[in-house]
Amino acid sequence: MKTAVIGADGQLGSDLRKIIPDNELIPLTIKDLDIADYEKTRAVLLAAAPSVVINTAAYHRVDDCEINDNEAYRVNAHGAKNLSLICRELNIDLVHISTDYVFSGDRMSPYSETDPPDPKTAYGISKLAGEQFVKYLIPAHYVVRTCGLYGVAGCLGKGGGNFVENMIRKAAAGEAIKVVDDEIVGPTYTFDLAQKIWELVRTKKYGLYHITNSGQCSWWEFASEIFKIQGIDVKIKKTSAAEFKAMAHRPKFSILENKMLERSGLSGMRPWKEALRAYLEERGRSIR
Ligand SMILES: NC(=O)c1ccc[n+]([C@@H]2O[C@H](COP(=O)([O-])OP(=O)(O)OC[C@H]3O[C@@H](n4cnc5c(N)ncnc54)[C@H](OP(=O)(O)O)[C@@H]3O)[C@@H](O)[C@H]2O)c1
């Protein structure tokens, strides 16, 4: 069984590459194909002949999506539509990665896979459109929604860093650190997500899945834990989303209940603090 990973040099793609055995992996980057280009994508997948495609590619600078929504729909919606049509035609299972931003985050209880989406941003709407194409065009699909990703490779779509590294860099530079305390997230280590996706694709239990490390925290609590694990004493000021004044609406509460994982008999994800410690170890940071 060969698995093609699209976005193979991205944050999640890089960890999928670590997990999938070399002789089963077809790593594809933007140099190989643009998912919004139907003909090219079809030609590459036809030649590579995988049994599974994992699509991690997205246009996901949330604020930029508000200004450049055409690009958001081109990649996140039409790209997903192209992959759905091609994979259906070529008899390939499709794994499509989506986001907590399909929910507004206006309520303060976890969202499960059966909750109706209500996106508030161009990014969220474009990702929901992508999900819908996958859902209605190809029966052999897994849509995986996740949240607050960080991984060793860093997020290419957001300039190559991630929240953890940004915090560490700011502290090392002696910059004042101010972090939002009124948005609740489920930070998720891409290595853990990659492992779970790799388990999931072999079940053939198609459908919609929420996959995040367990537990929840505010961004401020997440930042505090980054330094606590490393035994670094740093003052982090609390701020609010309103004070931060981002262009796009940010969900206040982004917790995704991983109900379908449990129903499918797969083990749950470890707590976010354990995953963060594992990430810092992997990065070779000194930890307490
Ligand atoms: N990051 C988060 O916090 C987060 C949270 C929830 C959900 N997600 C979702 O998780 C997925 C993976 O995120 P990530 O953090 O791993 O992203 P990433 O590091 O930006 O990786 C995405 C990869 O896709 C490639 N790509 C972008 N547009 C493409 C296109 N049109 N055709 C082919 N390849 C393209 C990128 O290449 P270039 O950069 O070289 O163009 C990059 O290698 C995305 O679907 C995202 O929506 C992310």
Fold topology:
Blueprint: E1 3-6, H1 11-19, E2 25-28, H2 38-48, E3 52-55, H3 62-67, H4 69-90, E4 93-99, H5 122-137, E5 141-146, E6 149-150, H6 163-172, E7 177-180, E8 184-185, E9 188-189, H7 190-200, E10 207-210, E11 217-218, H8 219-230, E12 236-239, H9 241-244, H10 259-263, H11 272-282
Parallel strand pairs: 1-2, 1-3, 3-4, 4-5, 5-10, 6-9, 7-12
Antiparallel strand pairs: 8-11
Helix pairs in contact: 1-7, 2-4, 4-5, 8-11
The structure holds NADP nicotinamide-adenine-dinucleotide phosphate.
Walk me through this protein's architecture.
With 288 residues, the protein is α/β, with parallel strands linked by helices. It has one domain (3-159, 186-214, 255-271): 3-Layer(aba) Sandwich (Rossmann fold), CATH 3.40.50.720. Helix content is 41%, strand content 16%. It contains eleven helices and twelve strands. It has helices at residues 11-19, 38-48, 62-67, 69-90, 122-137, 163-172, 190-200, 219-230, 241-244, 259-263, 272-282; strands spanning 3-6, 25-28, 52-55, 93-99, 141-146, 149-150, 177-180, 184-185, 188-189, 207-210, 217-218, 236-239. The strands form four sheets. The chain has a six-stranded parallel beta sheet, with helices on both faces. Strands 6-9 form a two-stranded parallel sheet. A two-stranded parallel sheet has the order 7-12. Helix 1 links the parallel strand 1 (3-6) and strand 2. Helix 1 (11-19) packs across helix 7 (190-200), helix 2 (38-48) packs parallel to helix 4 and helix 4 (69-90) runs parallel beside helix 5 (122-137). The longest helix has 22 residues, at 69-90. The protein is globular and about 55 Å long. The relative contact order is 0.15. The mean pLDDT is 96. Bound molecules: NADP nicotinamide-adenine-dinucleotide phosphate.
